[in-house]
Amino acid sequence: MNGPETTTAARAAAGPAPAAGPWALIEGAVKGVAKKYSQDRGAALSVADGRAVVLAVADGHGSAAHFRSDLGALWAVEEFTACALAFAREAVRVGADAAGWPGLRAEARGLPRQVGHRWHERALLHDANSPARGARSPLFGSGGRGARDRAGPPDLAPYGSTLIGAVLTEDMVFCWQLGDGDIVFVDEDGAPHTPLYTGPDLGDETDSLCEPEPWRKTRSHWQPFTGGRPPCLVLSTDGLSKSFADHQGFLDFATGLHERVTGQGVAAVRAQLPDWLARAAGYSGDDTTLVAAVAAPPRRDDET
């Protein structure tokens, strides 16, 4: 599961979990087969007394060139949740008032830049104190972090990571995606929607936070709920979708998640999720992380 650094900081900022709310939050993560440790991170947080949810997953690239990408994924989730918590509270305040939507959408468009800057600052500071290439980066002379008058961007490839995030309220949803991975909405009829899906991956190349100005490659989606909010929203790293023979198989898994929660209860699904993800990781060989918000069913007698 996620490291304590991720969940402790993010959950402290979110405040105590509400006693009830329209969603049940589900999280799961497993290490890839034959890997020493997972490069993935994830978080699912309840905000504003349960009236909003913040979800995030990040996938560190993990190759030899990206040998600190577990840190990059950790920072990606931490910085996204730090920015998204404040945004979620504002989205709850605006609610269904359409007059406030343009300002909210403008703030949403600026969020990837904010997250990208914060992530780069953490990577730069870490590299300054512990140079990834064995010598202090020329970006950092005697002037420390302020010495930015030398040519060439810093090489942050060792920390490279993707990032997917979402803010869900009772009135709308915002999603952002940089790099691979998946976002799936499931509607009332059980039909899946993938608003930021761009087709099957071609090779192992993906957009990354380690690139200059990564916000320019971040895809986004905004949707108000005029006909009722979707009963299920799932974010996952690509280790999950790659474990299926085709994309439809992955979508069937996502759509079945809400059915399982409804039929078996939240506690049962949370208990089974590690086994499901472990089987997926066995096929893909990759780290596999999932976070989800599903319409909370009535509490079962066997749940505490």
Fold topology:
Layout: H1 4-14, E1 23-30, E2 40-47, E3 52-59, H2 69-94, H3 101-129, E4 163-169, E5 172-178, E6 182-186, E7 192-193, E8 219-224, E9 232-236, H4 238-241, H5 247-264, H6 266-284, E10 288-295
Antiparallel strand pairs: 1-10, 2-3, 3-4, 4-5, 5-8, 6-7, 6-9, 9-10
Task: Explain what this protein looks like in three dimensions.
The chain is an alpha+beta fold and 304 residues long. The chain is 35% helix and 21% strand. Residues 1-20 and 136-151 have low confidence and may be disordered.
Quick description:
The chain is α+β, with helices and mostly antiparallel strands.
Record keyword descriptors for this entry.
304 residues; alpha+beta; Phosphatase 2c, domain 1; five-stranded antiparallel β-sheet; 6 helices; disordered N terminus
Number of domains: 1
How is the main sheet built? Answer: 5 strands, antiparallel
Which strand order spans the largest sheet, edge to edge or round the barrel?
1-10-9-6-7
End-to-end gap: 21 Å
The name of the CATH architecture is: 4-Layer Sandwich
Give the % helix.
Answer: 25-40%
Which ranges are low-confidence, i.e. pLDDT below 50, for 5 or more consecutive residues? 1-20, 136-151
CATH class: Alpha Beta
Report the principal-axis shape. Answer: globular
Q: In the CATH hierarchy, what is the superfamily?
A: PPM-type phosphatase domain
Nearest-integer average pLDDT: 85
Estimated structural class: alpha+beta
Query: What is the H-and-E element order?
Result: HEEEHHEEEEEEHHHE
Number of strands: 10
Number of helices: 6
Here the CATH topology equals Phosphatase 2c, domain 1
**Quaternary organization:** single chain
Gyration radius over CA: 19 Å
Strand-residue proportion:
15-25%
